[in-house]
Amino acid sequence: MRAPLKLYLAGPDVFLPNAAAQAEAKCRLCAEFGMTGIAPFNPDLDMARPAAQLWQEIYADDLRMMRESDAILANLTPFRGASADAGTLVELGWFLGQGKPVFGYSNSAVSFAARSRAQPDDALPGTAIEDFGLADNLMIEGSLTLPLTLPPDGQCRPFDSLEIFQLCLEGIAGWGQGFNR
Predict the structure, then answer these.
(1) Structural domain contains residue 29
(2) What mean pLDDT, rounded, does the chain reach?
(3) Is the pLDDT of residue 178 over 70?
(4) DSSP line for 69-132
(5) What UniProt keywords are attached to this protein's entry (predicted)?
(6) How far, in Å, CA of 64 to CA of 4, rounded?
(7) Pick the residue with more confidence: 175 or 181?
(8) Is residue 1 part of a domain?
């Protein structure tokens, strides 16, 4: 019998006011699909430590969880801008560099080009906007083991909705049947 696929659940969900509940819900859904969710939520760390120590401990703890994981499932819903969360993208790149499977979903049905056009053009006016009809930057989508899971009806979901996360788990479950660890 194979061990359950261990998924590192990356994303800016850790910044939500209900981060602990969101992490628990995602881990429960993973278990329903026969997988183990590893949420980078660090409640056991001493949050009273000085910031200079705390961020390093969070980083080290997240790296430990990433090493223990077989694959990443990243929430690539746009966060604080036109694209996915920067920290999540670093984690996605780490898994890609390790040769581990990379999966992602987005609750946004708006194209990357449309979101980019809506951003203020203060920093570099007149720069080109990447328009390949993709949901995010081509390097993000190109890194994924399976296509980015998006709302099938073309309608955006709330940031914390788990509906598209669950659809992504269904795809991973089908893919994972042929995966040997």
Answers:
(1) yes
(2) 92
(3) no
(4) -SEEEEE-S--SSSS--HHHHHHHHHHHHTT--EEEE-S--S-HHHHHHTS---SSTT-----S
(5) Transferase
(6) 18
(7) 175
(8) no
Report pLDDT digits (tens) over 57-73.
999 999 999 999 999 99
Residue 161 lies in a domain: yes
**Cβ proximity of 100 and 129 under 8 Å:** no
Q: In one letter, which amino acid is 24? A: E
Token output for 166: 């669950």
* Angstrom distance (rounded) from CA 63 to CA 60: 5
CATH number of the domain within which 12 lies = 3.40.50.450
How does residue 49 score in pLDDT terms, banded at 50, 70 and 90? confident
Choose among 160, 171, 150, 170: nearest CA to 11.
160
Q: In what order do the strands lie in the sheet with 71-75?
A: 36-38, 6-10, 71-75, 102-105
What is the number of domains present in the chain?
Answer: 1
- Coil, helix or strand for 8? strand
Can you read off the two tokens belonging to residue 77? 């819903």
Domain annotation covers residue 136 = yes
**165 lies in which domain range?**
6-175
Structure tokens belonging to residue 101? 């499977």
